[in-house]
Specification:
The complex is a heterodimer of chains A (about 375) and B (about 150). Chain A has about 375 residues and is an alpha/beta fold. Chain A has two domains: about 180 residues, Rossmann fold; about 180 residues, Rossmann fold (3-Layer(aba) Sandwich). Chain A is built from 14 helices and 13 strands. In chain A, β11, α10 and β12 form a beta-alpha-beta unit. In chain A, α2 runs parallel beside α4, α6 packs parallel to α9 and α10 crosses α13. The two termini of chain A are about 15 Å apart. Chain B is an all-alpha fold and about 150 residues long. Chain B contains four helices and no strands. The longest helix of chain B has about 70 residues. Chain B starts with 9 loop residues before the first helix and ends in a 7-residue tail after the last helix. Classes of the chains: A alpha/beta (about 375), B mainly alpha (about 150).
Amino acid sequence: MRIDQLVPSFARHDAISNHVLQVRRVLRDAGFQSDIWFEMVDDRLNGEARSYLECPPTPDRDRLLVYHASTQSPMAAWLEDVATAGQPVASDYHNVTPSRYFARWEPPAARSMYQARRELVRLAPHTALAVADSAYNAAEFDELGYRNTAVCPLLVDLDEYHAPPDAKTLERLRRQRDVGGHHWLFVGRVAPNKCQHDVIAAFAVYRRLFDARARLTLVGGPTSPHYLWALEEMITELELADSVEMRERVPFSELLAYFGVADLFVCLSEHEGFCVPILEAMELGVPVLAYAAAAVTDTVKEAGVLLTDKDPLVVACAADDLLTDHDRRATLVDLGRRRAAGFALENTSRQFLQTLNGWLATRSET
Amino acid sequence: MSIDATPPSTVRLIAAEERLSAVAPGYLFRARQAARRLAVSDLASTDARAALAAVDELAVIDLNVPTRSQMRVGRIVKVAVKRLVGWYLGYFGRQVSSLGQAVSHLGAILVDRTEQLEAGASDLEAEVARLSARVERLEHLPPGRG
């Protein structure tokens, strides 16, 4: 039996691409033949996969094609065609950001997101197995017309996060910390749905009220340059130029250094399909303060502080409560580590394989 | 329940707000306004009025090019280029803004017309349903009645 994966964008240090590589490992270890096919690829990963245009379109009942759905792609129409011809197709949903978040900032991106959902609606009746990486995504997938979507979390190798952090960055950040002040961190693409503007506003209030030496680092490349420019203006307007650092391209070892010095991970995102950085923070012992929205509530559960209001004053006070109550902070760090352990690669790999084997067993019965 | 059971109390929030007003008058308002300006409206993604609002916002071309840079030289170069081409961008930008606003105006008229037609169509549907029910009732009456 062959199980191939199709992923629109295959890139290094990308949560979905890492998941795809881990799934291939799990499948090959379980005795399946398995390859990866892409639409766009990062040159550094070119040897790991091939263009989907080279993927044989002839239907094969002993092959399952797994589509990783997260963006608009001509792959969806291609899959629709081969599925109509009798090829079994599965879809693994990682979420498509609702277009309304981008309509104001990046209209072409908004259009692409709108189209992506339409593509998924068309593919739904042809999908034999639907999988999503959170209960939130599964509910959305069902709304798009998929049936009995199974939940299988993203496969993330959390052991990799215990590699040594970049020494130079760590030293620089420790020198800053020695001056005093707490360090807030948020990791995620600069995108309107991630609401970095709310983090900046809350941090501004926190700094004025509780901790004049506090610092905030926002790590993530820009998905929306216009939104990024607006954030830069906001930082200047609120007189935060010396205390807020925005890092676009951060190598993995430097990211580990930021987690290494962070006192608090603040996520005020409104739309997340899973939110891997929350998992990273919990694994690395950074307490999480988050806005209870979309899949964030499920990812955090009881292992962090979840707020239903993200007014700057509310977030600033909640952050202060957490940072000054050492017992509570220690409890949350402990709960976070335990929550992250639940997403250990061996657990998520087993869950993925069980879902797949369950479907294969049902299929052979019919 | 996974939501944190102990969010900041109202008393604490009021005290914090009073303290902030004393040390930095108007700062909380400024922070809230800045965040609100960048927030996304709650309208649905398929709502024509939401799309029109986006066109409306984008129709005004921002001629104030960002000049922030992590390198000092980068900032100097950006400021210089901004000043050099300011007159050209101004001339070009005003025309694009006018075009955008004309398109937005057209969009507003079309959305209004569509909503009127939709309202008219639903009135007609209700009337057809009412008449169909009446015809059906008449058809089921005993012969010689109705």
